[in-house]
Amino acid sequence: MKVLVIEDEPDMAALLAATLEPAGYELRLERSGDDVEAVLAEYDPQVVIVDVMLFGSHLDGFEVVRRIRATSGHENTLVLVLTALVGEEYERRALEAGADIYMGKPFSPLELLERLRKAEIITD
Q1: Which of 100, 88, 4 is nearest to 44 (CA)?
Q2: Which CATH architecture has domain 2-123?
Q3: Peptide bond just before 22 cis, omega within 30 deg
């Protein structure tokens, strides 16, 4: 399964890769969501994991999620928001933007894998 990770922090991107690749996920890492439509067209992921705070990007993660949902063929792509912005307000904003799953940082790699597995079963 192809996963697009949009994460600006190299250590977090490395942790996600170390978590997902051994579990059989194929990854593409992007530091910015600015070109998300082009990346979706080129890579065609089934899952997108996106951070909210993307330093150096013109877009925040909420807008990236909106653009994913507006991109033809990706209306039903599984979108997981993984962010240090924790709280009901941020979760509400993520879900309203179109995210399927909201998780706060720090996160448990095992919980991330379990939530992806459950979501895949539900969406199949």
Answers
A1: 4
A2: 3-Layer(aba) Sandwich (3.40)
A3: no
Q: What separation in angstroms does the CA of 58 have from each of 15, 21, 46, 53?
A: 24, 28, 24, 10
Q: Residues near 123 by Cβ (< 8 Å), separated by ≥ 6?
A: 76, 78
Place of tokens 């977090």: 12
Residues 6+ apart with CB under 8 A from 64: 6, 33, 36, 50, 54
Half-sphere exposure of 44 (CA within 13 A, CB side): 2
Residue boundaries of the structural domains of the chain: 2-123
Cβ-based neighbours of 11, under 8 Å, separated by 6 or more: none
Query: pLDDT, tens digit, for every residue of 92-124?
Result: 999 999 999 999 999 999 999 999 999 876 554
Quote the Cα angle for 55-17-41, to 5°: 70
Mean of the pLDDT values across residues 18-36? 96
If residue 80 lies in a helix (H) or strand (E), which one and from where to where?
strand 78-83
Single pTM value for the model: 0.94
